[in-house]
Design a protein that fits this description.
By secondary structure, the chain is mainly β. Helices cover about 5% and strands about 20% of the residues. The two termini are about 20 Å apart.
Length: about 240
């Protein structure tokens, strides 16, 4: 039987002392491996028919223009050998330019933007490429510790051929001054792995008078793997 060896020098453990709520979220008992049955392997398929025309453009999903700096986020999804992963579903969610999510439990006093929901999705093409147009999210307080603020970030969810095959990670922006103070970012123990969560500003792909561009590749496994939140502690 093929098994996946989790590298806890790269991926964060689910129980991390600096991130207080992990104590309430991680499993308390050893996990039980369940074999994939025919249903898990064959469906539901995540094809183009499930995508809307504006799902990958978060700036055009409402009647008006959202507030904030318009950005393009693009890159590739790759396997451990650097080969592209085609036709995989990517979903993103994020705060608005003021650092607030459009969510019922987010009630810190920053303005909501009626023209920005902060949700998007797309499929990678045959070369594993994806592209989103969105607004650069703001930092926000989160109450984990005294004067705690999260760096600007975008959440990414990647699906395989079915909803049972899912990985979750976060993309950050270069030169954020909050990196040293964020326990979620620093729950990834390896410095090189943390750097793989940070996007690269790309002036060449920036569109004049329209949007700044950031490039970020997602590597699923191997020595250059992107850290994922769905890793499970084996202790």
């Amino acid at each position: 039987m093929v098994t996946y060896v989790q590298d806890f020098d790269v991926h964060p453990r689910l129980d991390f002392a600096g991130y207080k709520s992990t104590a309430l979220r991680h499993p308390k008992q050893p996990l039980i491996a369940l074999p994939h049955a025919f249903t898990e392997i064959t469906g539901p398929l995540l094809g183009e028919g499930r995508l809307g025309e504006l799902d990958n453009d978060l700036t055009r999903q409402h009647d008006g223009e959202p507030q904030g700096q318009r950005i393009i986020v693009y890159g590739r999804v790759l396997d451990s050998d650097g080969r592209p992963v085609p036709r995989t579903l990517l979903e993103v969610w994020q705060a608005n330019a003021a650092g607030r999510y459009q969510h019922v439990v987010d009630n810190w006093p920053a303005p909501l933007d009626p023209n920005f929901t902060g949700l998007g999705r797309t499929l990678t093409d045959d070369l594993g490429r994806y592209r989103f147009t969105t607004i650069k999210p703001g930092a926000y307080p989160w109450g984990n510790h005294h004067n705690a603020w999260r760096p600007a970030h975008i959440h990414f969810s990647l699906f395989g051929r079915a909803f049972t095959q899912r990985l979750v990670t976060q993309m950050y922006f270069p030169d954020d001054p909050l990196f040293p103070y964020d326990p979620i970012f620093n729950s990834v123990p390896d410095e090189k792995a943390r750097q793989r969560m940070i996007s690269r500003f790309d002036l060449e792909s920036t569109q004049p008078n329209w949007a700044l561009a950031y490039e970020w590749d997602i590597v699923l496994r191997g020595t250059e793997a992107t850290p994922f939140e769905s890793e499970v502690d084996d202790e």
